[in-house]
Design goal:
This protein is mainly alpha-helical and 546 residues long. It has helices at 2-8, 11-35, 54-66, 89-101, 105-131, 137-146, 151-154, 180-186, 188-209, 214-230, 234-248, 251-281, 283-291, 299-306, 309-323, 337-352, 367-384, 395-422, 432-443, 455-458, 460-465, 480-491, 497-506, 522-526, and strands at residues 42-43, 72-73, 78-79, 429-430, 450-452, 509-514, 531-537, 540-545. The chain contains 24 helices and 8 strands. β2 (72-73) and β3 (78-79) form a beta hairpin. 44% of the residues are buried.
C-alpha cells in the first residue's frame, strides 16, 4: 500500500517539497493581488483566467452556507424544484465549511485550492512511479506540474481572437483544463476533478497488479462516483480509457481487469443515473446543457497550447518502443507503460476532436501523459543519444532553452496577473461605491424580489449579496439570450411605461442596479417614473420600484 511505500523510503520528502513549491507559486500571485487592493476597495479573488466563472462558484457557496442552495437559481430568480440543478456537492460542502468557519467565500475558495495541491502531488507521484522510468522521473515530474505550451511565445504573431462562435486561441492562454499548472492555479473544483480522474486510473492499475484488489476497486469506484456527481462528462473519457486499458492488459490480466472495470462502473452508476434523470426531468438542467457549449479551438491553437510536449512525447514513445533496456528499470514500472500512456492520449484526442458539445472540457488530464512521455523524450534526446563531439558543447544550452520554452507560458500566466493587479484592473476590485451598492442590497430582506442589472455585471450580485438577479452572464441563466436582450431593452429606456411596468411585475423585479459608470447614462434610469433612486454616486446606483 501507499503508506508502506512511504515507510521504506523518502518519497514523502519529495511530495512535501513539491507541494510547498506549488502552494507558494500558485498562492503568491493572489496574495499580491490582495496586497495591491486600492484604499476603500475590495479584492474579488479573481484573476485573468476565465474570471466570469468565479462568481458562480461564490454564489453557490454562499447559498450552501445559507441553506437554500436547492431552492432558488440566483442567476435567473427562479424558485422551485428545478433549481436543484444548481446543487453541486463540492461547492455545497465548501460553502458549509466557510460559513461554519466564518470566512469569506473568496478566502475559502483559495484555501481549498491550496489545500488540495498535496493530494494532486501524491497521486501524480504514484502514477509517475508506475508509468515513467526512474531516469526520467524528475524531468517528467517537473514537466507534468509546470510544463506548458508556446502560446505566449506565439502571441506577438497572432491576430485578435474572435469573440463569437469558436474561440480560436492557444489553449495555454485561457483554458484552465489545458495543463496541470493552470488547473491547480485556477479553481479547487477543477483540481479536485483532476485528482479524482487520476486516482481512478491509478486504482485501476493497482487493482490489476495487487494481490488484494478489493480496496483498490472500491476506492476507484467511489472516486468515480464523486467525480461524476459534479463533472459527469468525464464518464465518457474515463470509461473509454479504462476499456482500452482492459484490452491492453492482455489475456493474463483480462479477467481481473474486467472485474475491476465492472466494479468501478457499478459503484459510479448512481451518479450517472442522477445526471440522466436531471436531464430528463429538469428543464433548467436541459437549458444549461444546451447553452454550455465548450468547443475545442482549431487544431493550430491546440498544438500551440501544448508546444514542445507533442514532439518530445513522440520521442519518448520511440524510446519506450525501441531503446528501453528490458529489466533495467525498478519493479514499479509497468511493463506496458508506453501502451497505457499512448492509448490514454489517443482516447482523449479522439473525444476532444469529436462532435460532442462539451469537447473542450474533455481536455482535462490529457496534459499528464503528454508531459510524462515528453520527460522520457527529453532524457532520451539529451542523455541517451550520443552527441557528436563538435556539437556536444551545444547540449547544455539546448537543455536550458527547452526548459525556458516549457515554462514560458506558465511564467506568462503569472506575469499577466501581476501586471493586472499592479494596474488595479477594475475587474478584480470592487471600488467603494460598488461595494456600497452591494451592501445596501445585502441588507435588504433575502425574500425581496429580483434585481435587474446589465447581464455582464449582474453575476457579482448573487456572489456578494445572495440576492437573485434577472439574468447573469453564462449558462447558469436559463434562456440567457432572451434575458440579455430584455435587460438591455429596459435599461436603455425602451418601451411604453405600461409595458415596462408589466415586465417588472411579471419578473418580480424590485431593484435595478448599475455597477459601472461607463456602461450607461444614469440619466435614463433617474428620469424613469417607475423607479426611485436609493443611492447614486459617480455613475453607479441603486434604484427601487416606486
Amino acid at each position: 500500500m501507499i503508506f508502506e511505500y512511504f515507510q521504506n523510503n523518502s518519497a514523502w520528502k519529495h511530495i512535501a517539497t513539491a507541494s510547498i513549491i506549488l502552494i507558494f507559486v500558485t498562492g503568491a500571485p493572489y496574495l499580491y493581488g490582495y496586497v495591491q487592493t486600492p484604499p476603500g476597495a475590495t479584492y474579488t479573488g479573481l484573476h485573468a483566467l476565465t474570471p466570469g466563472d468565479f462568481n458562480v462558484y461564490y454564489a453557490q457557496m454562499l447559498q450552501a452556507g445559507r441553506g437554500d442552495m436547492a431552492e432558488r437559481n440566483l442567476f435567473a430568480g427562479i424558485d422551485g424544484v428545478g433549481s436543484i440543478s444548481m446543487v453541486n456537492a463540492f461547492w455545497y460542502c465548501l460553502g458549509i465549511m466557510a460559513h461554519t468557519a466564518g470566512i469569506s467565500m473568496p478566502l475559502a475558495f483559495h484555501l481549498a485550492r491550496l489545500a488540495l495541491i498535496p493530494l494532486l502531488v501524491l497521486v501524480l507521484h504514484q502514477l509517475l512511479r508506475i508509468l515513467v522510468p526512474f531516469r526520467a522521473f524528475y524531468t517528467a515530474g517537473v514537466l507534468t506540474f509546470l510544463g506548458s505550451g508556446i502560446g505566449y511565445l506565439a502571441l506577438p504573431f497572432l491576430k485578435s481572437p474572435p469573440f463569437e462562435g469558436r474561440y480560436d486561441w492557444p489553449l495555454d492562454l485561457w483554458v484552465p483544463e489545458a495543463n496541470t499548472f493552470l488547473t491547480l492555479y485556477h479553481s479547487p473544483h477543477l483540481l479536485a476533478s483532476l485528482i479524482l480522474f487520476l486516482f481512478v486510473l491509478f486504482s485501476f492499475l493497482r487493482a490489476s497488479a495487487s494481490s488484494k484488489p478489493f480496496w483498490w476497486r472500491l476506492s476507484g469506484g467511489l472516486a468515480a462516483a464523486a467525480l461524476f456527481h459534479f463533472h459527469p462528462f468525464h464518464a465518457v473519457t474515463l470509461g473509454s480509457i479504462l476499456l482500452v486499458w482492459t484490452v491492453i492488459m492482455g489475456r493474463t490480466s483480462l479477467r481481473r481487469s474486467c472485474v475491476t472495470l465492472a466494479v468501478i462502473s457499478g459503484i459510479s452508476l448512481p451518479s450517472i443515473a442522477w445526471q440522466l434523470m436531471r436531464l430528463r426531468s429538469d428543464w433548467i438542467t436541459r437549458e444549461w446543457a444546451m447553452q454550455n457549449v465548450t468547443t475545442t479551438p482549431a487544431l493550430w491553437a491546440v498544438l500551440l497550447g501544448y508546444g514542445l510536449l507533442v514532439p518530445l512525447a513522440l520521442a519518448g514513445g520511440v524510446w519506450f518502443w525501441r531503446v528501453r533496456n528490458k529489466g533495467s528499470e525498478p519493479s514499479p514500472l509497468h511493463p506496458r507503460a508506453v501502451w497505457l500512456l499512448g492509448s490514454w492520449i489517443a482516447v482523449q484526442c479522439a473525444f476532444v476532436l469529436s462532435p460532442l458539445p462539451f469537447q473542450r472540457r474533455l481536455l482535462e488530464g490529457m496534459h499528464v501523459p503528454l508531459a510524462m512521455l515528453a520527460g522520457v523524450g527529453m532524457c532520451f534526446l539529451f542523455n541517451t543519444i550520443p552527441w557528436h563531439k563538435t556539437i556536444r558543447i551545444l547540449r547544455n544550452p539546448a537543455m536550458v532553452l527547452c526548459g525556458i520554452i516549457f515554462i514560458f507560458s506558465t511564467v506568462g500566466t503569472i506575469s499577466r496577473d501581476l501586471e493586472l493587479f499592479t494596474d488595479h484592473s477594475a475587474y478584480f476590485y470592487l471600488n467603494a461605491t460598488q461595494k456600497k451598492v452591494l451592501d445596501l442590497l445585502m441588507r435588504a430582506s433575502l425574500q425581496e424580489g429580483v434585481v435587474l442589472a446589465p447581464v455582464d455585471e449582474a453575476s457579482f450580485i448573487p456572489a456578494w449579496t445572495g440576492r437573485a438577479v434577472y439574468g447573469g452572464s453564462g449558462a447558469h441563466s436559463p434562456q440567457e439570450a432572451l434575458r440579455r436582450s430584455m435587460a438591455e431593452w429596459f435599461l436603455s429606456g425602451q418601451g411604453s411605461r405600461e409595458a415596462r411596468r408589466q415586465f417588472l411585475r411579471d419578473e418580480n423585479i424590485t431593484d435595478v442596479v448599475m455597477m459601472s459608470s461607463d456602461q450607461r447614462d444614469m440619466l435614463t434610469l433617474a428620469a424613469d417614473s417607475l423607479l426611485h433612486p436609493v443611492f447614486v454616486d459617480q455613475g453607479i446606483g441603486l434604484f427601487s420600484m416606486r
